[in-house]
Amino acid sequence: MGMHRDATNVEFDPIERNTRRQVWWSIYSFERILCSILGRPTVIDEREMSMQIPDAPMLEQKSMSAEFMTQAYEIARMSYTIRQRAYFDSNNAEERSPSLAMAESLLRECDTYAQTIPPSLSLNYLPTIPPEQKARILLLHVYYYYTRCIASRDFLVHKVERNITFLEGKDAPYSEELQRTLALSEDCVESAHQSLRCIMEGADLGMIGYSWLDLFFIFHSIMIVCADFLARPRSQHDMAKDVERKEMVRVMLNHIRGMKMAATYKILSKIAVQFAAITGVTEDQGPTPMYTGQAGGSRLDEKHAALGQDETAQTLVEISDIQEDWFANATSSLGLDFFELQEGPDSLPLHAEASTYPELYGQQPTAGEVDDWTARTLRGMHSL
């Protein structure tokens, strides 16, 4: 179709030309972000791309600007290239863990990108920005913080491994390399924390939804923040930033608790809740039982006591799904009670027999006759 090359748009009118540009860059951003999340190779060769940025004044969304689109497409491109350079070894086509020097270099690239963000798209200007623009700016920064996590999250794992080694009585000596590892780990956790703050600030703007923010970014940030508290020595007390991060995770988990999710995200939600409880970030062990204290609540409480925790959680999820089903919502206010239907003198009985209403069923064949259902079906109809 040639949508990746702007020269193919010469023959189109300005509206269609701009539409093709918008479609192409939407495909490009979606593909890059998805490849970054799944760790899959891209199928788009940037060396063959020559498509220009869409003309913002011609878009239906008047709040879009050329500055925003340029920054959004750039962060999608950078997120993928950083993941590829950090975790892919071009020499043997195998996955690898980034070195300290590589991770630090990639974070410097992120810093350089952040410096190119114009003041009108920075978080400092949010209070003065209209709501429809504010959600886009928050989303831009969520992608930015996620990209920082990509470059540094392996070193959070190294920190947890060191904590486990310390608890086993095999403490490693403090070194410059360890100091750099801890700095990268802290950068990863703080980036995840800032990402959650942006998401919560945009929650009231409808940013958490199918067309805006993928729930993956929420669970990714929650898991990273919780991992920072894994295998911590008991003698280590929470600092002010630790308390703030824990509270942010609790608020986010409570916010998404009642959301309708696909099966994959239901699994991620359960993992996030359990991991937060294991690491001591929350005291919650699972979903709050529904309908407790209501009609039928005692039966649910008895079942909750009889079943294991996992089975109870699954039962509650299934009940929640039934209550949120479109049929239950659509028929809840119809005012119909099918158990009170009565047979009036002029109504057809609910269980009508063929012998009672032969005009409805027609003459039934005897045991020795062949049942010609077509004749019975056409009986009473005019012949053509």
- Compute the average pLDDT: 75
Query: Which strand-content bin applies to the residues?
Result: under 5%
Mind telling me the C-alpha Rg? 30 Å
In N-to-C order, the SSE pattern is: HHEEHHHHHHHHHHH
State the end-to-end distance.
Answer: 54 Å
Q: How many strands appear in the DSSP assignment?
A: 2
Keywords: Nucleus, Transcription, Transcription regulation
InterPro entries: Fungal_SecMet_Regulators, XnlR_reg_dom
Pfam families: Fungal_trans
Protein name: Xylanolytic transcriptional activator regulatory domain-containing protein
Gist of the model:
With 384 residues, this protein is mostly helical. The chain has helices at 14-38, 66-87, 100-116, 131-167, 176-203, 215-227, 240-256, 263-278, 297-306, 309-323, 326-330, 358-361, 373-378; strands spanning 88-89, 94-95.
